[in-house]
Design goal:
single chain, about 160 residues, mainly alpha, two-stranded parallel sheet, 2 strands, about 40% helix, extended
Length: about 160
Amino acid sequence: MRAQALPTGEVGGGGSVASLYQLPLGIERFRAPEILFQPTMVGVDQCGISDTIEYVLGSYPSDVQMRLVQNVYITGGTSLLTNFSERLTTDLRRMRPYRSRFSVVNASHKLLDGWRGASHWGQAEGNRQWFISRHDYQERGAEYLKEHSASNPYITPLESS
């Protein structure tokens, strides 16, 4: 049995080839990034970016808060989302006292600036005290991370499988 050739540009069922490669976008384009700010939209019981910033700022005295909000630095692939910076600025304005000042700065190379900064930090001799060698990790295990001076006491290492 031989397949019957269809006229150019048409697919079985009468549609065009171009219509097979079209993806209709509705409100998903706007709702998907909103999950970063409101994870509860998809049933995740966690704070969004703005709520987390507000929580962290709340753990400092007001004079330290004022210094911290003078240098909000946005970097990383997620910051490439349309209006990400504007949304974060709006949320900061909402959470800060009326007429208080803050500064939101976008990285010049959002995809690489975080890595470059960490790379420069890691190459500085004075920062060796914060490192954990592979040998130390293998000898002492994940629990050592809790004891290390660079540890975050609020986060526990993932359990080994």
